[in-house]
Amino acid sequence: MFDHFPFVSVFLALAALTLTPGLDTVLVLRNAARGGVQAGVLTTLGICSGLFVHGTISALGLSLILLQSASLFGWMKFAGALFLIYLGAQSLLAAWRGETLVVETSGTSKLTGLRAFRDGFFTNLLNPKLIVFYMLFLPQFIDPSSSALPQALLVAAIHFLLGMIWLSGLAAAVHGARRVFARPLMSRLLNGCAGILLIGFGGQLAVFERP
Question: What does each C-alpha distance from 52 to 10, 55, 158, 170, 208 come to in angstroms?
Fold first, then answer.
């Protein structure tokens, strides 16, 4: 089933998404600032655990679509490529504007581990961008001749590992990271690189997968 799985393409696309500063990054930095490194790592674990839910739901939906129409599946792949371009354009726009992360550090109460995990899990689970992303991203790499669920869970597992490494690293270096990512130059660099990767990858897929 995984003999022809495009590991490199999946890795690059997910790496670009993971490195893009967003809600998950802000939440991890905030919780780490309030509750320490452990709270930041548990928040990360909650965020990344939600990816398997997105992967499962998307795979079940894709399975139903495949049973109904191969043409519709092709249109979904094309829409997913355009969505990657849209995400990339947003990142480039944020880089152009010089948008930075604003990390809230007020308050002295410590977060419990359960609350940190819960914050991350539900923030990820209810993130509309991720819901749309997984539904439109997975068709790019799903082999219609094989079961969609194992392939979707593999994509989620790769995303999980990338997210755990990146966000846990930020949590471990939270005090320095807050100052670094608050600088417009660093935010521009991250947003710009992620935007170029997403647009380039999405553009290639859009041409290749055009219905």
Answer: 16, 5, 10, 22, 28
